[in-house]
């Protein structure tokens, strides 16, 4: 039994990855609709060996469709997701719009698959923020063994997290630095990102943190355990794809670094590459296109009683967005089958 699947925002980076991953994982698609805004009408997108032309989201009728993977901003999601949900098409939404709604499950399948039971409350399931997804995949197995008390995380987030404009900005600034011309300087949204790092993603909040940092706090509590204290510093770096994170964890109970490494090696969605030698760790350029959340640099933090440090890298367009959404669709498919 296959499903009638719509991909909303099919021309964006995440939408295109959703199509790639639906094909790669051979998700049972009986029929596929690729939707985009009217200005993108007719744009060709790939689904496996097939090429499809986008349809107009504004006039599309979701009646009779099973699942809609949404990869558009919150503004468009606010208009079209309720239309789909209302006619029984279950929305899996990558925007932040519904993540914090207590009646809408926020799911990372390796961490809280049971949350899918609540999908029918509003026929909407939320996908977490990219920087949260990879972190909770790493935290969950360690939390089950030694109960995570506090997390201090610094992120090194690639420019693709901010969409095509972020990629273009890095590319244009880098070219301009190497090939200065008399043309107008390349567009800079906040500060120069080429050969630089920017400790600012999303908007600033009253307490001095940014909304990106707040998301990591709120989403980790919803997905893993509301008792976990998280403090985050989210930084944009001149990398095209692949988010990296330095994660410091304090546990309730002591956890030896070797046992932690063994646990992570056996955990779903994780690839441990951790050798204390040149190149014995993963970097963002090596994670691109992969499904895994890579973990390296596992070591005790001897400054506290029950501390551990680790390095976590994953493709932000995949596990951070499109892959997690398709994995939720797989989970949902099994849930629907169970309900009969
Ligand atoms: C970013 N996590 O990296 C945000 C949204 N994808 O820009």
TrEMBL record:
Q: Which residues form the Semialdehyde dehydrogenase NAD-binding domain?
A: 4-119
InterPro entries the record matches: Asp_semialdehyde_DH, Asp_semialdehyde_DH_beta, NAD(P)-bd_dom_sf, Semialdehyde_DH_NAD-bd, Semialdhyde_DH_dimer_dom
Q: Which Gene3D superfamilies match?
A: Dihydrodipicolinate Reductase, domain 2 (3.30.360.10), NAD(P)-binding Rossmann-like Domain (3.40.50.720)
Q: Which residues bind NADP(+)?
A: 11-14, 39-40, 160-161, 180, 316
Which residues are responsible for catalysis?
Answer: 130 (acyl-thioester intermediate), 243 (proton acceptor)
For this protein, the Enzyme Commission number is: 1.2.1.11
Q: Write down the chemical reaction(s) this protein catalyses.
A: L-aspartate 4-semialdehyde + phosphate + NADP(+) = 4-phospho-L-aspartate + NADPH + H(+)
User: Where do the annotations place phosphate binding?
Assistant: 99
Q: Which UniProt keyword terms apply here?
A: Amino-acid biosynthesis, Diaminopimelate biosynthesis, Lysine biosynthesis, Methionine biosynthesis, NADP, Oxidoreductase, Threonine biosynthesis
One GO molecular-function entry: NAD binding
Q: Which biological processes are named by the entry's GO terms?
A: 'de novo' L-methionine biosynthetic process; diaminopimelate biosynthetic process; isoleucine biosynthetic process; lysine biosynthetic process via diaminopimelate; threonine biosynthetic process
The pathway to which it is assigned is: Amino-acid biosynthesis; L-lysine biosynthesis via DAP pathway; (S)-tetrahydrodipicolinate from L-aspartate: step 2/4; Amino-acid biosynthesis; L-threonine biosynthesis; L-threonine from L-aspartate: step 2/5; Amino-acid biosynthesis; L-methionine biosynthesis via de novo pathway; L-homoserine from L-aspartate: step 2/3
UniProt binding sites for substrate = 157, 236
Name the top EC class.
oxidoreductase
Subunit organization:
Homodimer.
Protein family: Belongs to the aspartate-semialdehyde dehydrogenase family.
Q: HAMAP family, from UniProt?
A: ASADH (MF_02121)
Q: What does this protein do?
A: Catalyzes the NADPH-dependent formation of L-aspartate-semialdehyde (L-ASA) by the reductive dephosphorylation of L-aspartyl-4-phosphate.
Q: What is this protein called?
A: Aspartate-semialdehyde dehydrogenase
